[in-house]
Amino acid sequence: MERPRGLAPSNEQSGPGLGPAPADNALELLVHGVGGTTPEDMLDDPRTVRITGDDTAAVFRRADDVEAEREAAEEAAQGRTGRRGGRPVPEAYVWCNLTSGNGSRALWLLLLPFMVVNLAHWMRPTVRDNRIRTVRLYGLLVRLVGLSLTVLLVAAACEVALDLVAWQCAGTRACAEDHSWLGFLSPDGSGGAWWSQPGRRLALASLLPAALTFLLWYLSHRTWSAYESQRPPSGQDGAEEENDRSGLGRPGFWYGRRLVARLRAAHTAAGLLTVAAAAGGAAARHDAGAGGPGALDAIGRLVTAALVVGAAVVLWVVCRRGRTENRLDRHLDTALVRWLPAGSLVVLGLTLVYAAWSRPEWRSEHRLPGDTTFGGLVLVQGLLVVALCVVARLLHRAHPDPRAAMRGLAGPAVAMLGCSLGGVMSAGVGQRMADWLDGTGGSIPGPPVLLTWQASVIPPLLLVLLALVGRLAWRTVRLRRAEIGAVELAYRGEAEDAGRTRRIANTRAMASLTDRAPLIIGVISAVTLLLGALALVGATATGRTPDRAAHGTYAVVQGVAASSQALGSWLIGVGFILFVTWGRRAYKDPAARRTIGILWDVGTFWPRAAHPFAPPCYAERAVPDLTWRIATWVRATGGRLVISGHSQGSVLAAAAAWQLKPSVRKRVALLTYGSPLERLYGRWFPAHFGPAALSGLHRDVDCWRNLYRATDPIGGPVRLRGDCGPEVDREALLDPLAHGRTAEHPLPAPILGHSDYRADPVFAEERERLLARLSPELPGPRPECGPGEPRGSLPEQSTA
């Protein structure tokens, strides 16, 4: 990290490991939220200078404040009053380029199932030390779900490239004639003398899913190097100061290099072995049949054995080790990381040579046995999610948290959503590719029956979703009626305007719908699990597509089955296009990003603990940045500072404060506004942002104030009950500032909701109260805790 400029050199000490503290040594560190902004807007000055950082994330100051500490030291030495009059130096940490940029980053949305499963790892309930084995089992189950998703994605690519294109279409005269680019693979093509054999077609088509696997490996490795390779300051020297080190304060929490590398090697190997199994399995089945050559049959058995051994090694690597957070793990399993993917690549190469061996009598008929593969994956995922529900429930019952979402079952529900997203994407790609290849109708058998069934259950799922939307709409109407009285009371004495009152009440009611998210997630996950089980049973029992399975029944049943199958196929195609389009817009349009980006920023805030191919974790760059900046500034100047965080910036600020040593943390004050710390993170991630963790942070920092609005759909109160010192939350800010036109607001005041907290006079008031606490001396003793309240360190929570 670049050495910060503008710091006064010192030899004296004003605290343990701290430099001298001139009168003006105070800092206000601003951290923006979702959507990002410019340093000029954050600092209210068109002239800003980057003092440390790069084009991705950096700290800025006003041009006039670059040498503020040095000037303050010189003025203090001369006995003169500083030109700043005791005002703190404002700095802006700009991190928006970590999560936004050019439109190509919308392709990361294709990795959404991986990100969702990774979220499930962090949603485990709060635990005690005597539940370490149960916590490890929870983490293991989530990692296995993530591994199944990788196999599912690569298997879907194999289904398209090997089965639909190389096996079915290229092996069928009618389909090959409709697609001239497959002519060299067709048995009847002019140039197909060598490539026309099924094994060689499969070997050539295997390059596509293998290339997809290497692309995922490359993106994971590249993004880790760019985003997540920053070492936190807790491990920069050998002497660790005593600390509770619970939750996000553990030394190795934001440095998961070893686990990510192990999982990346295992998932890469799993993808390559899946491709080898798809190509080599077809050849082995042919050779094992009647009339197969003895030598090739023996080689096929060896290939099968090698695939089984490789799969066992991959499972061992995934199950063997979880996250190491209690220390900064600098070691890397070099041999494993290098040789596991390399060995899988060798097995793939030998398998493709074996599959391409000459078999003149071999003909491609029907479809490859994909039903068994996809059916087995769906069954395994369902069993893993059910087991995860049992483990999560045990953890929650051992240490109940009334504010935890879905009573501790948020993790399994989100894992189920990740599996369903992977299944829908696989079914959609296979179904749409089959429809495109089979333009004449009936020329090829099509995708596996299970994929068709999975596409067919989308319309019923949408009906359930529409019913939920209707219920929420009705609830919004009722809440709006209830809020009208509250709005009238809040603006009592101002001119009445019924239309304005309804708009404010409606905004408040809409903002409260965020708290209904657990209901939506829970219902959708349960319905998805039920429909997935029905699709698996239907595909297994009938062996036919829904429309054919309904043939011979009532006309209404046949019509519903056929309509659901066709509609589901088209909905997947349209949804995929809209998905990428909205994602691209969210990365380029700040307004759209504020609407869509909060969920994406929540997902990419957490380190990759369950799936290495998930989108990169920006916090593994942002949190060390903030921690390094705070620690080095306090060490050099001995001053104190306020971290001012909006929205997601407040989460980064809290995470950085947890990483600080106690001697530095007690010189820090927090000002959060529009913060999702309790409303979103505390409910969905109770193990790391639950009441105990937030209460401990309140005790450790010098002071903490939190601002929120009733019209804010994201931010909310912190709800610290019975903690030391004053309450953290200020009562809900009035929004809008005026009901109608007043002398202070001659034009109608806007309803701000989640944005522009700094426009409220209360913000300036609370900011001044915090800044007034900044002084060269160490802070005084904190008020005593109430009866029965915990003090000191929190029990360490182990993680898998």
Automatic annotation (TrEMBL):
According to the record, the segments passing through the membrane are: 106-123, 135-157, 202-219, 265-286, 298-318, 339-357, 377-396, 408-430, 450-474, 517-541, 561-583
Record InterPro entries = AB_hydrolase_fold
Map out region (Disordered) in residue numbers.
1-25, 770-800
Keyword annotations for this protein?
Answer: Membrane, Transmembrane, Transmembrane helix
Top-level taxon in the UniProt lineage: Bacteria
Stated name of the protein:
Integral membrane protein
